[in-house]
Amino acid sequence: MTGSPVTAGPPAAAPSHGRQPHDRLPSIPLAPALEHRYPANHGVDVQSMIDYRLRRVREELIREDIGACVLFDPLNIRYASDTSNMQVWILHNPARYFYVPTQGPTVLFDFHGCEHLSDGLSTVDEVRHGKSLFYFEAGPRTLEHAAAFAAEIDELMRRDCGANRRLALDRIHFGTDIALAGLGIEICNGQEVMELARKIKSADEIDAMRAAIDVCEMAMGKMHEALVPGITENALWSVLHAENIAAGGEWIETRLLAGGPRTNPWFQESSMRPIQAGEMVSYDTDLVGPFGYCCDISRALVCGDVTPTNEQKHLYRMAHEQILYNIDLLGPGVSFRELSEKSFQLPPEYLPNRYSVVVHGVGLCDEYPSVRYMADFEASGYDGIFEPGMVICAESYIGREGGGEGVKLEDQVLITEDGVEVLSKFPYEEALLG
Q1: How far apart are the C-alpha atoms of 1 and 145, rounded to whole Å?
Q2: Where are the alpha helices (DSSP H) in 247-354?
Q3: Are the C-beta atoms of residues 129 and 109 closer than 8 Å to each other?
Q4: 203-433 belongs to CATH 3.90.230.10
């Protein structure tokens, strides 16, 4: 479909990632709406970061010949606007959404009484009270609200998009698709738009991610100190949460910490089970830290002042080898399929318990791409190219099918112009590698 010419202003500058890990610049003053939200002394230019991200969204809309998008996913709203409001609650109560045209003013539709939260933000030109599109608020009037939502979006698109009637939605709520289509609006895949926009990080985003990693690794150290025989998995996991929040972080997406026999198979959530001396403890941080950026790294260690068993050392060394081997294959221009084909080959007894991906992207959370093992590629994989500015997590889970324990390791890696930089610095366990 053709439409009026659209522009997004100057293209988003190509990322420059020359700063070394943990370098910090002086603090940069924040807009009033951002004051006190972020910790000081990390040197992140938040204004530059959020301007870059909004440009990325508009550039992707232009590339796909889409007139505008409406974002419901709170992480997509955060990326495009840097507004934050009851993030976890909004995940299951879609009470706010963000309208972004390729040109023209943005409109944030926020929850009743929350309009002041975006005061002074350059990314938000107007704030309105959103239509309730979920049953808790709309009840039997859901379709009525969906029609009102569609009418308001139609009005905005006619104002901003000319003849272009293509609208990207990252989520479709009951009745909204029918109401929009009835007004002649073509719905496009907004999640694709956002994942592709988010994949290339600016230098400011990498600075924010370094800050999140700093906080996460500090909290991991506190958690390792707290690991003593008899502590429950939940009590140990709570240390990571507490330290993250106190240092300006936001939440943790999962509860992936387990000890002893609960480490195999993987993906068992933390519990009230006491951890015993000599047991392997594995965890995956999935931590959303300062500035809203994710630190997704995994480590394993043995509880108590004991000598690891030969089996524990064997599992740990294989996981460590897999991480290093696969990171060595990463770089600009490498295809997802090529990585999958060349990646570390698990022995047959470990293949059934393999992790779900070889590597995946990360930003505000786990993001595009998801690179499958070759055994899964034909059924659920897809191809693409690693590019400078992408941040990738290399994953390993090693545990025999039906075995007693398992080891989870993971590192966070920046793709650079000439290779990679490992962003995560938390040390591995010498006692398990020796």
Answers
A1: 28
A2: 310-329, 336-342
A3: yes
A4: yes
Start-to-end C-alpha separation, the chain: 62
* Residue 379 main-chain phi, psi, to 5 deg: -80, -40
Question: How far apart (Å, rounded) are the C-alpha atoms in residues 9 and 346?
Answer: 48
Write out the two tokens for 350: 């470990």
DSSP for 107-165 reads EEEE-TT-GGGGTT-TT-SEEEEPPP-SHHHHGGGHHHHHHHHHHHHHHHHHHHSTT--
Choices 3.30.1360.20, 3.40.350.10, 1.10.287.500, 3.40.50.1110: CATH for 32-198: 3.40.350.10
How many helices and strands in the chain, by DSSP H and E? Answer: 13, 17
Collect all residues with Cβ–Cβ distance below 8 Å to 159 and sequence separation of at least 6. Answer: 104
The residues facing 274 across adjacent strands are 232
Determine contact, residues 106/123, Cβ cutoff 8 Å: yes
157: number of Cβ within 10 Å: 25
Structure token digits, residue 48: 């530059």
Give yes or no for residue 25 having a pLDDT over 90: no
Contact 352, 375 (CB under 8 A): no
- Nearest to 326, CA basis, from 342, 337, 312: 342
pLDDT value at 291 more than 80: yes
Confidence of residue 94 (pLDDT cuts 50, 70, 90): confident
In this structure, the number of other CB atoms found within 10 A of the CB of residue 168 comes to: 24
Rg (CA), the chain: 23
Q: What is the DSSP string of 18-64?
A: -SPTT--PPP----GGGTTTS-SSS---HHHHHHHHHHHHHHHHHHT
Collect all residues with Cβ–Cβ distance below 8 Å to 19 and sequence separation of at least 6.
Answer: 203, 206, 207
From 3-7, 16-20, 235-239, 271-275, the region with the lowest mean pLDDT: 3-7
